[in-house]
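#structure-requests
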Amino acid sequence: MASPREMLQRIRSVRNIAQVTRALQAVSASRVRKAEARVKQTRPYARKSWQVLCNLSRQPGRNFVHPLLTKHDEIRNAIVILVSSDRGLAGAYNTNVIRYALDAFQQSTLSVGYITVGKKGRDILLRRRKKLLAEFSDLPEEPGFVDVSAIGRLAIDEFLAHRADQVWLVYTTFVSMLRQEPASQLLLPFEFEGPSIEQTASPVQMVENNQADERESTYLYEPAESTIVDRIIPRLVELQVFQAVTESLASEHAARMIAMRNATENANELAEALNLEYNKARQKAITSDMLDIAGGAEALTRS
């Protein structure tokens, strides 16, 4: 059994850990509110841009088909944009999204390369000896579109160069403070009802059923269809990547807040249990000392 001094040191260390986790919980709680507000602000625009891509891909009588809307003849190579975090202490957040991506392509015959956003995903893929094409880390605390657009541009360049026949986007959707779910999205080539890795729908992909039955509108282009489409489609594809990063960032802060709250509660419970054990050990030592004193006093009276 540990000595009372060792138990006091352990209690002190556990309480110090509880103070750290409580501070991390407060920081994450502050950040998740801002991140949630950003998700709610950008999600309608991202959803509407996805619907624009839907209409562009199904335009009747169009005489120009953009390469990003065209399927390759053979599907051999795929790129997965995997969004994780730079830091840990977020519970199962990183583990869930990375396992989701790896399991999805475990039985696939495609040659899969990864573009990682976040150090945690990069490190795990390197340990698993996966093909890593590029990595993006140390993004700003509140990344803007300019900070993320290079990720989408890289995927577009790989697709247009025919080094990738499919581009998948794997990230974590922010459902609520207590619920974050991994999601997948076929980014390129664009398909309105494209397959999902595990048939998981993204909130960005959600389009109301009644809108699917509406008559398609025919767009009028000025100055030229090719000029406008060449600019708008890559921009909208990059926007989907930006929305995925925004969703993942809110999910990360929410997961870290919950994990740190649980860690604080567990540390407090452990400190109370250790304090109880310390009091028992201290009481036992005092009782033993009192018995020794009483025995010594009785021996003196007898002598």
